[in-house]
Write a structure and sequence with these properties.
The complex is a heterodimer of chains A (about 325) and B (about 290). In chain A, helix 1 runs antiparallel to helix 12 (about 280-305), helix 7 packs across helix 8 (about 175-210) and helix 7 packs across helix 10. Chain A contains twelve helices and no strands. Chain A has helices spanning about 1-30, 35-40, 45-55, 60-75, 85-120, 125-140, 145-160, 175-210, 210-220, 225-260, 265-275, 280-305. Chain A has a domain at about 85-275: MetI-like (MetI-like fold, Orthogonal Bundle). Chain A has about 325 residues and is an all-alpha fold. Helices cover about 75% and strands about 0% of the residues of chain A. With about 290 residues, chain B is an all-alpha fold. Chain B has a single domain, classed as MetI-like fold. Chain B is about 70% helix and about 0% strand. Chain B has nine helices and no strands. Chain B has helices spanning about 10-45, 80-115, 115-130, 135-145, 150-175, 180-185, 190-230, 240-245, 255-280. Classes of the chains: A mainly alpha (about 325), B mainly alpha (about 290). Chains A and B meet through helix 1, helix 6, helix 7, helix 8 and helix 9 of A and helix 1, helix 3, helix 4, helix 7 and helix 8 of B.
């Protein structure tokens, strides 16, 4: 068990290292150089040279890479090329906002998907199950930003119940915070729960066929008792996998949703930096997102070990 | 209406009825996909109005016989834009899926047939690439190369390679266990010939299903990119940008969000259903899993 965890952690670290090299190399192939890109085509040669000196862009790539990654690891990523402000505090701020959004969406999606998926599986031959199935299929086809726009049209424009956009920190005004969080989180959660529901359904359907469930029924348990006592743990493995994989979809969905609802999160920061050609910022935000996805994959692996004792035995 | 737990595999009438329902998903999916394709093809020969013609006199018209879906804030005909937009969507999808398939399929087959360490290496790279979702990769590409349809298509294509490679690898591993591969080996066929003549045809159903599902992913990613202003540059109509332009008009003309939104949903739903239907069609054993 400990060995497996160590191996997994090693893979996580290696993946983070390799992807940081990839991101850095990708940004380094840019035609022209970051200083020229940041200052625009009309900048004088002297200004470009000065910026290059200032940020050490004239040094060898390896040195630049080491400084960049060192800065990220020590939570001191330095200054932006464009705004010249500290990246670290800004990044921390934005991460919190996106965490609120993605976390709420994930929890809501799970709260919807687990019971609905179970109902869909148990009633998979009845009209109610089939209707839910069809609905989830439609839900998967609606991108989060479309759901967001429709929700704004309905709840902000037409009914006027909730604000159409904006963001307030929870410490400043908790009520406003919740009000402004509802629509964006729901837009993300709608799509997520549609996807998750389908996986929960097929996972439970699979389990329903197993011999051990029939044995549990023969022992005298009611269908629901058998499912809850013996089925759910087994159905959890594929669902947890999907949950991990969905985090990347959720993060990317949040990038767009933050634009729809004018929320100052990681996604807005990424998009603004792309528009302002602030490459160091783009690089940092992409790295944060990628590390989040890789870390989630690692957590999923750890969760497997907790859910499924068979995997703990050591040899795969 | 009590919750019944099925204790035997569905056979006979129930099974047949369910198979019938499965065919529905294939039929509906195919119909929706055909609709999008027909719209795209039609837009080459006919649109009711010039989709990019700015006509201030006809701003924000309601749907009418003249303008079927009404007009936007610039007086452009929404229906014509939707028609031409389907062309953009299909084009991006075809190129992106093409890029992913052309690289991902051989990668999957080779990684399954090559020595173990190579296969493992490919799969690790795959996992790494999975950490970069299509939209994120496309935004990175845009940051470096500027925004254009080509950049979007290639980025989305690269991001979907792992889906192909992983699926085709597992399909190939199964095919390699069969006796006809053994027979081919015994009769002296080289690995290249086996891969091309025996493995590829036998994993083709997987490729088709994955292509359909990836197409849906590409449509979503393109719409999101255009929505963010990073995809197809104006004035070429694209559903994502129409949606973005509609957002500021939500208070005065919410209907403008409805048409491009419905178009995106129809395209994605169509390709998803088609993929699901084909999967069940090709592999009846998988029935019920989805």
């Amino acid at each position: 068990m400990a060995l497996r965890l160590l191996i997994r952690a090693g893979i996580l670290l290696a993946s983070v290292a390799v992807s940081s090299v990839l991101v850095f190399a990708f940004m380094a192939v840019i035609p022209g150089d970051p200083a020229r890109v940041a200052l625009g085509v009309n900048a004088s040669e002297a200004a470009v040279t000065q910026l290059r000196e200032e940020f050490g862009l004239n040094r060898p790539l390896l040195e630049q890479y080491l400084e960049w990654i060192g800065g990220l690891v020590t939570f001191d990523p330095g200054l932006s090329y464009v705004t010249r402000s500290e990246i670290g505090p800004l990044l921390a701020d934005r991460v919190m906002v996106t965490l609120w959004l993605v976390g709420t969406a994930m929890i809501v999606a799970l709260l919807v998907a687990l019971p609905v998926g179970a109902v869909m599986a148990v009633r998979h031959r009845q009209l109610s199950g089939l209707t839910l199935s069809a609905l989830s299929q439609v839900g998967v086809a609606i991108p989060a930003f479309l759901a967001g726009i429709l929700l704004i049209a309905l709840f902000a424009v037409w009914l006027g119940w909730l604000p159409a956009n904006g963001w307030t920190a929870p410490v400043v005004d908790p009520v406003m915070f919740v009000k402004q969080l509802i629509l964006p989180a729901t837009s993300l959660a709608l799509v997520q729960s549609a996807v998750l529901t389908r996986y929960v359904r097929s996972a439970i359907l699979e389990v329903l066929r197993e011999d051990y469930l029939r044995t549990a029924r023969a022992k005298g348990l009611k269908p629901m008792q058998a499912l809850v006592r013996h089925g759910l743990r087994n159905a959890a493995v594929p669902v947890v996998t999907v949950l991990g994989l969905q985090l990347s979809t959720l993060l990317v969905g949040a990038v767009v949703i933050e634009r729809v609802f004018v929320i100052p999160g990681l996604g807005s920061l990424l998009l603004d930096s792309v528009s302002q050609r602030d490459l160091i910022m783009v690089q940092d935000v992409v790295m944060v997102l990628v590390v989040a996805v890789l870390a989630m994959n690692f957590l999923v692996d750890v969760l497997y070990l907790i859910i499924d004792p068979r995997l703990r035995a050591g040899a795969r | 209406m009590s919750a019944e737990i099925p204790e035997v595999l569905p056979t006979g009438q129930t099974g047949a009825r369910r198979r019938g329902l499965r065919n529905h998903s294939l039929l509906i999916g195919a119909a929706l996909v055909c609709l999008v394709i027909v719209m795209g093809l039609l837009s080459f020969v006919w649109t009711p109005h010039n989709p990019t013609l700015v006509n201030p006199a006809a701003r924000l018209q309601l749907p009418s016989a003249e303008y079927w879906f009404g007009t936007d804030k610039f007086g452009r005909d929404v229906f014509s834009q939707i028609l031409v937009g389907s062309r953009t969507t299909l084009f991006v999808g075809i190129v992106a899926v093409g890029v992913a398939g052309v690289i991902g399929v051989p990668l999957g087959i080779v990684s399954a047939m090559a020595p173990n360490w190579f296969g493992e290496l490919v799969m690790r790279c795959n996992d790494l690439l999975l950490a970069f979702p299509a939209l994120l990769l496309a935004i990175m590409f845009t940051a470096v190369f500027g925004s254009s349809t080509l950049v979007a298509m290639i980025a989305i294509g690269i991001a979907t390679i792992p889906n192909f490679a992983r699926l085709i690898r597992s399909g190939t591993l199964q095919v390699l266990k069969t006796e006809y591969i053994l027979a081919a080996r015994a009769s002296g066929r080289g690995p290249f010939a086996i891969g091309l003549r025996h493995v590829l045809p036998n994993v083709s159903s997987l490729i088709i299903v994955q292509a359909s599902v990836s197409f849906a992913i590409a449509v979503l990613a393109e719409a999101a990119l255009s929505f963010l202003g990073f995809g197809t540059p104006p004035p070429t109509p694209s559903w994502g940008r129409m949606l973005q332009e509609s957002q500021e008009m939500l208070w005065s003309a919410p209907r403008l969000a409805l048409f491009p939104g419905a178009a995106i949903a129809v395209a994605v739903l169509g390709f998803n259903l088609l993929g699901d239907g084909l999967r069940d069609r090709f592999d009846p054993k998988l029935e019920d899993r989805r």
